[in-house]
């Protein structure tokens, strides 16, 4: 087992350095630590590779590092200040955006990201049937405790169709209210289950209840997925209402929120998808939407929509830097003159 403090230093370094240098640093550091996931292309796009297969491919891969890479890794990891232990750790090669490079996506044409929370469930396959029929992509933010052998197969099918699997935590926990240990477990346990199911980690996390603060953003270790069109399907449980809420409010770059645990939603998707396709919308994953709109996501960033003229996203908050320790000034007698001066 790797030392947790060292892993946290490595991943905090990634957030604070240029992407190219950070990847080099992490690669060298992982090799020095005993080597594990060193080949990004070890993960198959069909989503059927298990954790064991990924690790086997990584350990068998030939790894070469230069003196410069080793120096970069040493510099980045030794100069980083770790301010919290509530930071998840994932292997870089297994935590990448869900982008189907074989899909014929035209960045100049309208695109929309349909997203589904709280699954996998009994209606997820029905939604996938509709997506497959129209060669459409979507993003599914799964709850870790819902993942089992049966739903793992559904997730593998989704990835094979070009869809994205994101995290919705292990137990649908409110991360703002969670203590440090619960925060860590909710994210890491869901990540591990997803890795076991599809051979890669989730890239985005959608916080349950849409609840977040800057502390969550600093330590979640992922970009955060929000939405711009809320169908409120969880409340209405009505197919016509969900269809109307989507089609009457949609525009280029929107992120639509639905839940794949309701039969009414699955029925609505069967109407929504063909209508959007007929209107000329490309149905893409959230990773694809941000990528083709030219926005490079970072840990702690929030995305609401990718409207062409005015995309709505938030950059990561400032690092959580401890207040400097100062020596209190000696007490002095306050005179009438100094009080008067202070009041001016």
Structure report:
With 344 residues, this protein is an alpha/beta fold. The protein folds into two domains: 4-88, no CATH class; 111-314, Glycoside hydrolase/deacetylase (TIM Barrel, Alpha-Beta Barrel). The protein has helices spanning 4-16, 19-32, 51-60, 67-78, 124-133, 149-160, 180-198, 214-219, 233-236, 239-247, 263-278, 286-292, 336-342, and strands spanning 111-117, 139-142, 164-167, 224-225, 229-230, 255-259, 282-283, 302-305, 312-314. Strands 1, 2, 3, 5, 6 and 7 form a six-stranded parallel beta sheet that branches. The protein has a three-stranded mixed beta sheet with strand order 4-8-9, with no helix packed on it. Helix 10 runs parallel beside helix 11 (263-278).
Chart the SSEs and their pairings:
Blueprint: H1 4-16, H2 19-32, H3 51-60, H4 67-78, E1 111-117, H5 124-133, E2 139-142, H6 149-160, E3 164-167, H7 180-198, H8 214-219, E4 224-225, E5 229-230, H9 233-236, H10 239-247, E6 255-259, H11 263-278, E7 282-283, H12 286-292, E8 302-305, E9 312-314, H13 336-342
Parallel strand pairs: 1-2, 1-6, 1-7, 2-3, 4-8, 5-6
Antiparallel strand pairs: 8-9
Helix pairs in contact: 1-2, 1-4, 2-4, 5-11, 6-7, 10-11
Q: What do the pLDDT scores average to?
A: 77
**Oligomer classification:** single chain
Q: What is the percent of helical residues?
A: 40-55%
- Structural class comes to alpha/beta
Characterize the main sheet: 6 strands, parallel
As residue ranges, the low-confidence spans are: 1-8, 10-92, 328-344
């Amino acid at each position: 087992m790797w030392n947790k403090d060292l892993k946290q230093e490595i991943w905090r370094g990634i957030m604070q350095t240029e992407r190219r240098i950070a990847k080099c640093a992490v690669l060298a550091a992982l090799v020095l630590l005993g080597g594990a996931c060193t080949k990004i292309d070890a993960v198959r796009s069909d989503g059927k590779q298990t954790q064991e297969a990924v690790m086997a491919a990584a350990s068998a891969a030939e790894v070469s590092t230069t003196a410069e890479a080793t120096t970069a890794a040493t510099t980045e990891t030794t100069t980083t200040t770790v301010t919290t232990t509530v930071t998840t750790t994932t292997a870089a090669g297994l935590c990448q955006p869900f982008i189907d490079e074989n899909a014929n996506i035209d960045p100049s044409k309208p695109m929309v990201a349909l997203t589904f929370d709280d699954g996998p469930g009994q209606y997820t396959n029905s939604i996938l049937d509709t997506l497959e029929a129209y060669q459409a992509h979507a993003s599914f933010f799964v709850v870790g405790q819902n993942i089992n052998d049966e739903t793992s197969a559904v997730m593998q099918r989704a990835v094979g169709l070009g869809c994205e699997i994101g995290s919705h935590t292990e137990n649908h926990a409110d991360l703002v209210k969670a203590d440090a240990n619960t925060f860590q477990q909710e994210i890491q346990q869901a990540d591990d289950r997803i890795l076991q199911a599809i051979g890669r980690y989730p890239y985005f996390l959608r916080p349950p209840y849409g609840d977040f603060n800057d502390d969550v953003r600093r330590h979640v270790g992922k970009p955060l997925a929000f939405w711009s069109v809320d169908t409120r399907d969880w409340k209405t449980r009505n197919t016509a209402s969900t269809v109307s809420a989507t089609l009457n409010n949609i525009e280029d770059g929107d992120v639509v929120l639905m839940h794949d645990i309701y039969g009414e939603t699955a029925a609505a998707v069967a109407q929504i998808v063909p209508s959007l396709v007929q209107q000329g919308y490309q149905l893409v994953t959230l990773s694809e939407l941000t990528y083709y709109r030219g926005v490079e996501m970072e840990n702690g960033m929030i995305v609401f929509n990718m409207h062409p003229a005015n995309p709505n996203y938030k950059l990561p908050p400032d690092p959580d830097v401890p207040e400097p320790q100062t020596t209190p000034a000696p007490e002095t007698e306050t005179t009438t003159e100094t009080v008067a001066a202070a009041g001016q």
